[in-house]
Amino acid sequence: MGTEMRPLEGDWALILGASSGFGEATALELASLGMNIFGVHLDRKGTLPNAERIMGQIRAAGREAVFFNVNAADPDKRQEILNEIQTRLSTAKSPSMVRVLLHSLAFGTLKPFITKSPADAIAKSHLDMTLDVMANSLVYWVQDLVARQLMGRGGRIFAMTSAGGARVWQTYGAVSAAKAALESHIRQLTLELAPLGITANAIMAGVTDTPALRKIPGSDEMITLAKRKNPSGRLTTPKDVAEAIGLLSHPEAHWVTGNVICVDGGEFVVD
């Protein structure tokens, strides 16, 4: 199959949150479409084998996999990663770029705003951290990619949001605020990046049984409710989302930008 049928062949995707859930599935999907993968993940010894398995699957597909086990929201680590990416791309045999950036960072506090004991309530540090990791870090990564000319015309930016950006769930307040901010950042990036030929979209998955979901108190109830109301009769899977991102990464999707795109089998439209 020639590159005329595989237009993403040889380019790179940068996946923030690459070792599980949506990040894992998207890394594998884009590799199947011919892309090489830079992955950023944060794993301790117990979960590191999963990241190594993903890298092995990408390489087994004949693609390159370069993973960094660091905090994606750390500004110094971000610069170190981008330095390595820049060196690798500048010394490649054929010109290539970071064609796709996926922001799929699920690390934030799950504390209530109001409690009987103030010590159990959310603090400024918790709220600041959640917004920084799950929303603001997207802006910083995009700024640096564009400033370093690592992403240009034809680039695709995706950020994982959720229905929680507009709805409430017990203890989800900080994450909900971060998702709302993330969607706002996508709208602003759309405006500022359109002249450069780079698109930006938020992807709203339906309820998906991922490690991140399981950390939310009441996740079993969320799963039960989603199964009951989803007109497709099942939960969303990471692969469902990854396949949609693969389609939107295609050059012919260049006019799709500035949206919150539901990938949920119709779940969100049902009350």
C-alpha Rg, in Å? 18 Å
Low-confidence parts, pLDDT < 50 over ≥5 residues? none
Shape: globular
User: Which superfamily, in CATH terms, is the homologous superfamily?
Assistant: NAD(P)-binding Rossmann-like Domain
SSE string, helices as H and strands as E: EHEHEHEHEHEHHHE
Average pLDDT metric? 92
* Largest sheet: number of strands, sense, barrel closure: 7 strands, parallel
How much strand? 5-15%
Class computed from helices, strands and strand pairing: alpha/beta
How many domain regions?
1
CATH class descriptor:
Alpha Beta
Strand order of the largest sheet: 3-2-1-4-5-6-7
What is the CA–CA distance across the termini?
Answer: 45 Å
Query: Which bin fits the share of residues in helices?
Result: 40-55%
With helices defined by DSSP (H or I, 4 residues minimum), what is the helix count? 8
Overall CATH architecture? 3-Layer(aba) Sandwich
**What do we call the CATH topology?**
Rossmann fold
Question: What is the total tally of β strands?
Answer: 7
